Amino acid sequence: MASSAAWREPDPWHAPATYWFWHRLPTSAEIREQVAQMARAGFRSFQIQARMSFPRQEYLGERYLAACRLAADEAARHRMIIGIYDEYNWLSGHAGGRTVEGHDELRERHLFWSTAQITDAGTDVECTVDDIHPTDVEYLLDPGMHWVFENGEVRWDEWELVAALAHPAGDVTDEAQIHDLTESARIGSAEAGGCTVVVPRGVLPTGSTAVTVFVAARCATSRMINYLLPEAAERYTDVGYAPYAEAFGPHWGSTVKYAFFDQPHACFFRWRQHHGHVGSSLMYAPELVHRYEAEHDAPFRRSLLALVRGIGPTTPARRCDFFETYSTLGIDSFFGTLARWCRRHGIALSGHEVLGHVSSWDPTGTIITDDPRTNFGTDYFGLDRWRDHTAVDARNTDPQLSAKFGDSVARANGRSGCLVEQYFGSTATGSHFAAGQWELTLRDLRAQTIRHHMLGARQLLTHAFWQTDGDDREEMFTNPRFDFAPGVNFEPWFPYHRAFADESGRLSVFLDDTEPQCEVAVVYPLRSSWAGGPEHPYGAHTAFWTEHLARKGYGYHLVDERDVRAAAVENGCLAIGGRRYRCVVLPGVEVVRDGSTVDVLARFLDAGGTLLASGPLPGATQADGVDATLAVRMAGLCDAATMSYWPEPPSARQVEAVLRPLRARHAVVEVDDPMGSADSGETVWQYAGRDTAGTRLALFNDADHRRTVTIRPSSTPAEVTRWRPESGAIEPLRTTTGASLTLSLAPWELVCLSLRDGTTPVPGDRVLAEGWTLRAAGSTIPIQVDRGWERQGLAEFSGIGEYRLSFDIPSGDLAWPDWELILPVIDTSAEIELNGTPLGRYGWGPVSCAVPPGLLRDQGNELRVHVASTAANHYYAGTSQRATPAPSGLGAAPLLRPSLERASAGFA
């Protein structure tokens, strides 16, 4: 339970933090005044970041470190803390170029490939790699090229032939068709701009019609490091971390609490001959070969071809094997080295990698690179085990996945909450993204920050508080004015920032003191990412599920397949650590480690758990590649009563009836839907969590008009208290006696409530999903009610169908006096009868009708629903006028819900 002091004045781990951009060496007076200005604005911590306009030769110099020490003196005086932003500009690892000075062997090294056809000319085969360009740095214009590359030039040396493989130019159906010719091939020419590999004609096997070669080279002019080499990270801590430890003196470990890395990555290169499955060059070190062959039962050279093209049924296995070794080597070599240094020296490690889902819900996004796998293999859960504080990146004010993903990986590693770095890029036509958004309003910043908190953020990291606002030159990056604006302290609204900061910190304290009510686990499709890349449909399916669940207020986490495999099945729940999930979602999970993953899912279904899946189902494993037996087994699971499957991302209407029962054991928030708000993206964001006394709810109306919400407590009577993050006040409201609570939320209003548990549990919803029959077209058949009869053998029937169901209710639930029957989806009109008593005629849905007191019985309830369809499927049958039949009948499972409305009491 948060103390009243922490609520009134949030500590430095909950109140907003900020980057402090230095564009030149600050004066002592500037340091004192700007630290004080940050403190007055409600920032409780900061990170000093030298930007591209800062003279690189002065970074980590004596005067720079002395200025940092003075900043720490001032921070301590204002009871603030500091995180070390560990790099000049960003791309942590190069220390402004110091890491590779005098150590050329540590510069980034990359793997390239090229394919040539075998002709009948009788000549040797030549494969060339040239015209190599960094797709990420090019976006940073000339200043970026000179920052990353000496003299702004990309030059290569130490060319190495890694593999030369002959194979069919058409489909490769088996690995046996790949012939390793590496020992006979040679590098014919090697220059600063590229190389050519020669494969002698005489060694080419019969039947092969193409040759693919893989070559590696060191970028001789790059200041970026080879992240696969632990010695590069060790050198980086020597020249980039140790100087701070010495300079900060007694502040180290007290005022200075952690180091923060930012998007460490080798450059993403493409070249004229680039083609195939992987979207850019790969980091390379000889240790990659040795480790791969020690860990996997496959030759490294032949396996490489799977990164360019399909090689038959083993393609998914070879890709997963490669990226498993690749990501683990990079993560352990770089992040493991940093973590060990920080632990030895008494500070924590934080920071964030390149994330595919920045500014979206889709983890296959390519905001920086064409293929996120080429960095650290998209293994966000594995990387996080080296951090002490999870951090993520977020761009602009679009609702997005970042905070939810950050909180999820933190919980998988025994922590919770995350720090969200929030920056802004220009989206105006004709503008460069670095021009930022000077038009940002404080209301928009506040709304985005609240969304982040609701989805798992503990702290906002503002990008950024500026030393200076530059001048009128229209130059990206080197003129601070156009270096990811806004500099918040140069916004006219900055004097109002303190109110925003206090509210953000208090909301964080309010939420952070709870265990979130999360009953849905969304499996992160790591191996589908490795095998399928950013073009795989898992991205769209993950985006649908994560956004839908967030907007509808369902508590959920993304979970790692490694945790699923180790999970227990207890009382119908998937138990991962101390978390319990009643529903598991597979969003395009096509490739899994092996059949053990499906074993756990099958046990979960057998125990009554709910499994939802969309897109490709598991049909391949890292162990064996394409697995027809596994595919058949998954198809069989789709017939389970508690599993639902959709080949394409489902509609919100399709999934709501399945998801809705998950709310039954908790306080439920129902939101009105004026003007189609749910379809327009307007959302009342919700958070529900348990503390020692009961439930905490946070609600945020993310719309420009009022929204009405109804809160149904999980037990009555419920004592309700309102916490006001804008002022720090805590106000007792009322004790409810069997009443639902109705709130009218003003535009962009944030409400925080505490509901102390009552003594009488409210029964859960009873979903009437199984056991239905349908009488239509002269016969009676079993029928599923999660989809219309037109999809169950009656595509040409139009008319009235009679649905029937017999069901029982536990006698204990019948003690609750008031119930209602809900038909979420009917196509199109319905007449309802329960135990011989008419409940009404309804021309359209959804339907909610009161059940008369005493009508329900514990056994033998009889429900009849007469549904009238449209005439479309009769009159269009056999014609070309409609591609698919019209929805007909019930489209979602009806449910019985305990009603609180007769005793409803509202409050403002």
TrEMBL record:
Gene3D superfamilies: 3.40.50.880, Galactose-binding domain-like. SUPFAM superfamilies: Galactose-binding domain-like (SSF49785). Signal peptide: none annotated. PANTHER family: DNA-BINDING PROTEIN (PUTATIVE SECRETED PROTEIN)-RELATED, SECRETED PROTEIN. This is Uncharacterized protein.
